[in-house]
């Protein structure tokens, strides 16, 4: 079918007239000649703050999981039992809600839109999530400004969105993530010798050729196309920054060790909750190493899409359907199958956080330098409720927040948690959110 | 709202349904919001299929493309519309860069360079400006879909020279410059640009290159070939006769099949296959191979009926003719004879279902009934919603908040054993019943097909009742549904609307005069899909000049 066109192409390639030799001076390779990046003495600067988000689908179930007591002396609800060993390094926020301000509740989406971006809109607009606002501050000096992963096979299962370009596509393959972070381009920060790679220098210079095209292209485009082009060049700039980081001698990081290469990936699409969690564990290992090795300061993990179609082995009905249909067992007081899913996710969350807490950085742990922000799509999933969101954070962000508390604020804007975490992570802002979701003060009792 | 209901919902039953009216209103508002505002983007991000096809067209099929692309997003029913607003993420640039380096390395590889590079350098270990210029300007014209400016060629040649010198390798230099082209927004985005129209004083027109790209990606899902670029360069594309000549040529080309496949893959939502899986415990025959073959079965059926036989679009939904492989036949429970040796790729065998078979038309293919089912069991609601949205261009609202879904799909329910019984119980909830009335009676007629597309007559030991209703027409079973769908005027109106939207990048308004004309021509041509493509390709909708173009050209 394409043979006719193939001939045309060959004829064309062979038949092209050689143009006259005109050269235009473009400073394409100026930095190749500039080789002053051979050694960077350790600055002794403090370790950077790090941030992680961890999304699990469909809340904690229907029964009453809100602790009665607030402050440090509270009892964890049974739904969160796997997190018990981490309770002192954790804060549990309850009661926060998303205000719809007359917009419809686009179920499994609108609540997250409000919780993560501070703005509720009828459209599917989703711009500027908490993690992206934070990576703007703490992410730019590292090789990857942020890393997103999704555990159920779809790169669209992601709640991280830059303010200008929208949702980031997530990595769905642990093997691909391994080679992206620890493949040939990885520079061991603890290697005795450091020589800037001439290939990287050359590549950086070559890329500048694309930047040279910008002005000519901009002139031909309308405002909306120019905006898209701006986004493209912002992304290209991140690639250039990645190369710049590779040309600098990294700060030694004693806690950095290189993980073992992973075996083959399984089939990309996942339908069982256990398989998604298994993938989450693989990702957790890689992300922890990536953080400890200074490759990124911000990571985002999502178990699945919000209206989770994941199932328990041998059961034809998916978690989402169970949340609506399963009866609350009168003896147990909860939906037993839904609880199975919640337990599965809380266990995976505990393993994720423990892994971070298991990496020593001096006399503290990696977790102590960061905040993990665990969130979900609905307060009470059976009713698609946007009230009483359970949010769990871990770590004190390098001494920036106090932990060990239950913060119950029934009816408060859930965005206040987002503002508090942003301020703790160094985002210079005194307010966050739009309309009724706008807040102008943080939760002061957790700020150190 | 009632005024709007009349054109599509002519039956009394539908007219009486408030919800149907609301459904239509949703559709209208969706279409009304879609047309470009003055600031809508005109360019689009090259889709994965368009990227791949470009590499095939320019460098041949031996270049392998491994790697993933930024995900696509559906808007107004099409990924093609979503591509208008798609940006390229930071990780996307990383991926495009890897692809670019990989492709460029293959092009200059010793195995390929003699066929793909039209000249030999004076020395393989040094730069050669003349040869680099010859290759880069030719490849650039095909990749950027326009002739490169002298400045662009010079910059690219210079870059190749610098890398060649640094690496003492002429071909490494070419690869560096080519890699940049493949990462450039000039390649990754298809731009629409404008110029003063010499025929109409003071007016603008889409320039020739932009017209060539619009036509080519519409009809071939591929970049313009040399003849089309030449028609852009010599002005032929701007004349009525010249345009017609090019469109005729493109419709007669074997590449049309590629374009038709791409259009229906988009319209039928086949990108969702990427994340489709079924529980092997329940559906052991639904293997990854079957997933690939399910799409191929439908695309082959479409190409055969619409392109090869130039048939009636409506017959796609009732035709007994299709193509099967051994694996698909096993899934469907059909005995076919395939003499292919074990271990060899399975062959595609033409197959016609008997007249009384419940399988007929593409609705009975796994590409519909399995694609629109959850991994563990079938969902009449999902299938009904998919039929309305994908095939009739009607929007079905999301479920409301604060409603319990109790009993609906409790497959172990002691009383409500079949999906129909469970949905019936659910339908008593007023907040739910409205929407389910427009989806479930469609989906229930397809309940003979399980979540993976296999055939069944019972569910949990109870006989499945497949009676259903579509906009007031009652029927029984999948064949009845297919016939009702075939005679629904929204079916043909929808595909025509999608074709215009797919080609122009904008969903036309419902009352749009040009759309109405195209729909009428489609009917006059007995719903011949290739003729529909011709009408759209020659229509004013395709090359229209948006208001913001004026300032662009004056600014330039």
Automatic annotation (TrEMBL), chain A:
InterPro entries: DUF1552 (IPR011447), TAT_signal (IPR006311). It comes from the Bacteria. This is DUF1552 domain-containing protein.
UniProtKB/TrEMBL annotation, chain B:
Residues 131-190 form the DUF1595 domain. It comes from Steroidobacter gossypii. Residues 359-459 form the DUF1588 domain. Residues 471-541 form the DUF1585 domain. Coiled coil: none annotated. This is DUF1592 domain-containing protein. Residues 206-334 form the DUF1592 domain. Transmembrane segments: none annotated. The lineage of its organism: Bacteria, Pseudomonadati, Pseudomonadota, Gammaproteobacteria, Steroidobacterales. The keyword Signal applies. Residues 1-25 form the signal peptide. Keywords: Signal.
């Amino acid at each position: 079918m394409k043979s006719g066109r193939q001939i045309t192409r060959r004829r064309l390639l062979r038949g092209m007239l050689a143009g006259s030799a005109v050269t235009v001076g473009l400073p394409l390779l100026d930095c190749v000649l500039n080789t002053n990046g051979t050694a960077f003495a350790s600055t002794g600067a403090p370790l950077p703050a790090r941030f992680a988000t961890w999304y699990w689908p469909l809340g904690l179930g229907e029964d009453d999981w809100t602790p009665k007591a607030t402050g440090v002396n509270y009892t964890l609800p049974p739904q969160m039992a796997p997190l018990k060993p981490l309770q002192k390094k954790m804060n549990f926020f309850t009661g926060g809600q998303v205000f719809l301000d007359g917009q419809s509740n686009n179920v499994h989406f609108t609540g997250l839109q409000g919780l993560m971006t501070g703005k509720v809109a009828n459209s599917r607009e989703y711009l500027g999530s908490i993690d992206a606002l934070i990576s703007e501050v703490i992410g730019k000096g590292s090789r990857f400004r942020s890393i997103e992963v999704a555990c159920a096979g779809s790169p669209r299962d992601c709640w991280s969105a830059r303010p200008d370009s929208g949702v980031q596509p997530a990595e769905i393959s642990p093997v691909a993530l391994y080679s992206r972070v620890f493949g040939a381009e990885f520079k061991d920060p603890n290697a005795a010798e450091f020589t800037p790679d001439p290939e990287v220098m050359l590549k950086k210079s070559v890329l500048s050729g694309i930047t040279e095209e910008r002005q000519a292209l901009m002139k031909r485009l309308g405002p909306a196309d120019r905006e898209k082009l701006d986004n493209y060049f912002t992304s290209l700039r991140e690639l250039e920054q990645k190369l710049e980081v590779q040309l600098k001698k990294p700060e030694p990081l004693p806690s950095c060790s290189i993980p073992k290469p992973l075996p083959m990936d399984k089939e990309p699409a996942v339908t069982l909750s256990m398989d998604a969690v298994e993938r989450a564990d693989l990702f957790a290992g890689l992300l922890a190493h990536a953080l400890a090795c200074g490759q990124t300061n911000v990571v985002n993990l999502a178990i699945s899409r919000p209206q989770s179609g994941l199932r328990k082995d041998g059961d034809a009905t998916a978690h989402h359907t169970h949340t609506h249909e399963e009866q609350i067992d009168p003896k147990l007081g909860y939906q037993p199958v839904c609880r199975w899913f919640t337990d599965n996710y809380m266990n995976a969350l505990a393993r994720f956080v423990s892994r971070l807490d298991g990496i020593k950085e001096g006399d503290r742990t990696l977790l102590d330098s960061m905040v993990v922000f665990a969130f979900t799509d609905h307060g009470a999933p059976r009713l698609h409720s946007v009230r009483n969101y359970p949010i769990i954070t871990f770590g004190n962000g390098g001494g920036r927040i106090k932990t060990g508390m239950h913060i119950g604020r029934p009816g408060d804007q859930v965005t206040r948690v987002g503002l508090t975490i942003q301020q703790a992570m160094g985002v210079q802002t005194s307010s966050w959110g739009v309309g009724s979701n706008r807040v102008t003060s943080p939760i002061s009792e957790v700020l150190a | 709202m009632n005024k709007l209901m009349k054109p599509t919902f002519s039956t009394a039953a539908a007219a009486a349904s408030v919800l149907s009216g609301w459904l239509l209103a949703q559709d209208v508002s969706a279409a009304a919001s879609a047309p470009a505002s003055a600031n809508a983007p005109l360019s689009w991000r090259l889709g994965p299929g368009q990227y791949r096809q470009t590499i095939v067209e320019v460098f041949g099929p031996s270049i392998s493309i491994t790697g993933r692309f930024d995900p696509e997003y559906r808007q107004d029913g099409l990924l093609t519309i979503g591509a208008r607003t798609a940006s390229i993420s930071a990780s996307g640039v990383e991926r495009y860069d890897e692809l670019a380096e990989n492709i460029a390395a293959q092009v200059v590889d010793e195995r390929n360079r003699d066929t793909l590079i039209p000249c030999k350098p004076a020395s393989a270990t040094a730069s050669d400006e003349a040869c680099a210029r010859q290759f880069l300007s030719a490849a650039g014209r095909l990749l950027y879909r326009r002739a490169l400016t002298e400045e662009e060629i010079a910059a690219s040649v210079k870059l190749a020279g610098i890398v060649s010198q640094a690496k003492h390798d002429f071909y490494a230099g070419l690869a560096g410059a080519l890699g940049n082209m493949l990462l450039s927004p000039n390649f990754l985005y298809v731009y629409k640009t404008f110029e003063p129209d010499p025929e109409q004083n003071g007016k603008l027109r889409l320039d020739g290159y932009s017209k060539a790209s619009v036509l080519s990606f519409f009809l071939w899902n591929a970049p313009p070939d040399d003849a089309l670029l030449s028609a852009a360069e010599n002005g032929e594309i701007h004349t009525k006769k010249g345009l017609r000549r090019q469109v005729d040529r493109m419709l007669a080309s074997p590449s049309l099949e590629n374009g038709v496949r791409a259009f229906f893959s988009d319209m039928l939502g086949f990108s969702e296959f990427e994340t489709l899986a079924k529980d092997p415990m329940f559906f052991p025959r639904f293997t990854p191979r079957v997933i690939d073959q399910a799409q191929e079965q439908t695309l082959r059926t479409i190409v055969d009926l619409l392109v090869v036989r130039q048939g009636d679009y409506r017959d796609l939904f009732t035709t007994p003719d299709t193509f099967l492989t051994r694996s698909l036949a096993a899934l469907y429970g059909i005995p076919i004879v395939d003499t292919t040796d074990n271990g060899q790729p399975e062959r595609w065998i033409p197959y016609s279902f008997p007249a009384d078979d419940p399988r007929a038309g593409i609705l009975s293919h796994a590409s519909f009934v399995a694609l629109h089912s959850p991994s563990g069991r079938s969902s009449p609601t999902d299938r009904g919603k998919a039929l309305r949205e994908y095939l009739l261009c009607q929007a079905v609202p999301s479920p409301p908040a604060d409603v319990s879904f109790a009993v609906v799909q409790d497959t172990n329910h002691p009383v409500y054993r079949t999906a129909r019984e469970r949905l019936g119980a659910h339908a008593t909830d007023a907040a739910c019943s409205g929407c389910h009335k427009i989806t479930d009676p469609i989906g229930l007629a397809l309940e003979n097909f399980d979540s993976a597309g296999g055939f069944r007559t019972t569910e949990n030991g109870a006989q499945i009742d497949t009676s259903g209703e579509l906009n007031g027409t009652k029927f029984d079973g999948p064949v009845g549904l297919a016939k009702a769908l075939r005679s629904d005027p929204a079916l043909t109106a929808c595909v025509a609307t999608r074709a215009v939207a797919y080609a122009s990048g904008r969903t036309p308004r419902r009352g749009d005069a040009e759309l109405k004309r195209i729909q009428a021509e489609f009917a006059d041509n007995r719903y011949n899909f290739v003729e529909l493509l011709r009408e759209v390709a020659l229509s004013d909708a395709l090359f229209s000049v948006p208001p913001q173009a004026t300032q662009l050209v004056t600014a330039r």
